[in-house]
């Protein structure tokens, strides 16, 4: 059997006749006709999907920052680790929101009577990956991580400042999501509570952490010895 | 002296093909054998510290496909994540299928990140600007069998490509014009971290698909029951 023979065989089995197709695909739609528990409104769901995209965008931005610090010419393993971890965290956030939509019966949206589809897989991940090195993210302009030779700053400090800008933008976006989902005519009490308790909580703590790091490193970088300060601070992050 | 520097600058450009423009402008890279010369001149005169020492042992552009592949792993990880999420919905409610697909998503993500770290060890500057344009294709309604068959397809394509990249970096290319890509360390990394796990993943998934196919073929009328039991098997 050739490489894709198996796949062809399986899909053929599943679509040969309508009788077979019905047994190969469980027809769940009919089970929920008339007993629909799904009450999240479209406006709130659409905004949540946008938020998922932003979490993925932030994740990939952090990944590009991590890759920068992993370069042999930059050599900041502590910052690389910090941002690799942040990238994975943002990816988790995206999945947490997907799971929430799923819990409320809204990950797959009903297109028509018999077809359910999520718009989330339509995100062009390939473009998001390619654009992850851009300095404009989510309406925020970030700084180039390599400072000019005479600049009184370091890659590490710029990266922390960029990260704080990014997180602030995410926080603002979650607040907007809360506004969208909490208003009339339908208040999504539970979702808003979830966003406030889980997401905003993490945002504010994360922002405080970054701000503290910026302060600590910033004071060391201000005068002489910026590069040494960056080097030492990096080791503390390991 | 100036002309030497200009020449080295262009060598630097060639080896740093992947660097973004700003990075190239600010960091000049030395060639495999010029670290001491360049850094030595810096020690005599700190205004002469333009060059970075580089870990590259072969031309940086040789890692083009490796870099591209790691980006594609990131893209595929999201494809698996979305596919997995479908089976967590109340409409499908197959936690076992969700679990196996989510496992593939995590594996692709973690390996993608690990490959970035690995290439940074060779002096390659990772860039995200190169990635296949292939869109995430796992849209819409997938039934259980289709989802696993889709996973087989993705894993096999990745395995075939990992083999190709391995050939490029292995001694198989030594008599070739393109032997400049030879890197035993990368070849070994691909074998251990990418190819061997992928061989297991493909075999595992193909086994599942064939089980389901055979069960369906024999007793299609009880297939919903079969899927229920199979899902429980996948949850273990
Ligand atoms: Fe987040």
TrEMBL record, chain A:
Top-rank taxon, per record: Eukaryota
Give the GO terms filed under biological process for this record.
Answer: intracellular iron ion homeostasis; iron ion transport
PROSITE patterns in UniProt: FERRITIN_LIKE
The answer to whether UniProt assigns keyword Oxidoreductase to this entry is yes
Question: Which EC class is this protein assigned?
Answer: oxidoreductase
| Cleaved signal peptide residues | 1-21
> Start and end of every Ferritin-like diiron domain?
38-221
Q: Is Signal among this UniProt entry's keywords?
A: yes
GO CC, sorted alphabetically, is: cytoplasm
Q: For this protein, what is the EC number?
A: 1.16.3.1
Q: Where does Fe cation bind?
A: 55, 90, 93, 167, 203
One GO MF term? ferroxidase activity
Reaction(s) catalysed (UniProt annotation): 4 Fe(2+) + O2 + 4 H(+) = 4 Fe(3+) + 2 H2O
Q: What are the protein's UniProt keywords? A: Iron, Iron storage, Metal-binding, Oxidoreductase, Signal
Tell me, what does this protein do in biology? Stores iron in a soluble, non-toxic, readily available form. Important for iron homeostasis. Iron is taken up in the ferrous form and deposited as ferric hydroxides after oxidation.
The entry's family comment says:
Belongs to the ferritin family.
Query: What protein is this chain from?
Result: Ferritin
Q: Which organism is it from?
A: Clunio marinus
Instruction: Recall the taxonomic lineage recorded for the source organism.
Output: Eukaryota, Metazoa, Ecdysozoa, Arthropoda, Hexapoda
UniProtKB/TrEMBL annotation, chain B:
Signal peptide segment: 1-16
Aminoacyl-tRNA synthetase as a keyword? Answer: no
SUPFAM superfamilies assigned? Ferritin-like
Domain of life, source organism: Eukaryota
Q: Which keywords belong to this entry?
A: Signal
Q: Which InterPro entries match?
A: Ferritin-like (IPR012347), Ferritin-like_SF (IPR009078)
Name of the protein in its database record: CLUMA_CG002116, isoform A
What is the source species? Clunio marinus
């Amino acid at each position: 059997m050739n490489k894709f023979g198996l796949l062809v065989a399986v899909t053929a089995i599943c679509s040969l006749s309508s009788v077979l197709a019905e047994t190969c695909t469980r027809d769940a739609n009919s089970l929920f006709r008339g007993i629909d528990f799904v009450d999240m409104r479209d406006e709130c769901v659409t905004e949540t999907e946008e938020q998922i995209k932003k979490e993925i965008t932030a994740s990939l931005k952090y990944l590009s920052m991590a890759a920068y610090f992993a370069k042999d010419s930059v050599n900041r393993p502590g910052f690389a680790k910090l941002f690799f971890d942040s990238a994975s965290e943002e990816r988790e956030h995206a999945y947490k929101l997907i799971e929430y939509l799923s819990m409320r019966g809204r990950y797959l949206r009903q297109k028509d009577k018999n077809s359910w589809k999520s718009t989330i897989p339509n995100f062009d991940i390939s473009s998001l990956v390619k654009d992850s090195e851009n300095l404009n993210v989510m309406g925020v302009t970030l700084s180039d991580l390599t400072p000019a030779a005479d600049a009184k700053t370091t890659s590490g400090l710029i990266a922390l400042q960029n990260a704080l800008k990014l997180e602030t933008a995410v926080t603002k976006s979650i607040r907007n999501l809360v506004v969208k989902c909490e208003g009339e005519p339908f208040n999504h009490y539970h979702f808003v509570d979830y966003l406030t308790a889980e997401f905003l909580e993490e945002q504010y703590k994360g922002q405080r952490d970054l701000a503290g790091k910026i302060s600590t490193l910033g004071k060391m970088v201000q005068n002489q010895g910026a590069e040494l300060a960056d080097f030492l601070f990096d080791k503390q992050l390991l | 002296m100036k002309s030497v520097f200009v020449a080295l600058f262009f060598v630097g450009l060639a080896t740093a093909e992947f660097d973004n423009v700003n990075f190239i402008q600010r960091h000049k890279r030395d060639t495999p054998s010029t670290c001491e010369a360049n850094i030595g001149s810096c020690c005599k005169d700190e205004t002469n510290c333009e060059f970075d020492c580089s870990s590259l042992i072969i031309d940086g552009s040789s890692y083009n496909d490796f870099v591209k592949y790691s980006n594609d792993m990131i893209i595929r990880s999201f494809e698996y994540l979305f596919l997995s999420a479908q089976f967590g919905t109340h409409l499908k409610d197959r936690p076992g299928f969700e679990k196996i697909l989510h496992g593939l998503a995590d594996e692709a993500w973690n390996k993608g990140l690990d490959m970035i770290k690995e290439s940074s060890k060779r002096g390659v500057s990772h860039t995200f600007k190169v990635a296949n344009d292939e869109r995430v294709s796992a849209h819409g309604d997938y039934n259980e069998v289709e989802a696993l068959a889709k996973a087989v397809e993705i894993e096999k394509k990745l395995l075939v490509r990992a083999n190709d990249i391995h050939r490029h970096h292995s001694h198989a290319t030594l008599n070739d014009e393109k032997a400049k890509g030879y890197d035993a360390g990368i070849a070994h990394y691909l074998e251990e971290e990418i190819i061997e796990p992928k061989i297991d993943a493909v075999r595992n998934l193909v086994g599942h698909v064939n089980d389901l196919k055979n069960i369906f073929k024999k007793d299609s009328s009880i297939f919903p029951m079969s899927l229920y039991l199979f899902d429980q098997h996948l949850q273990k």
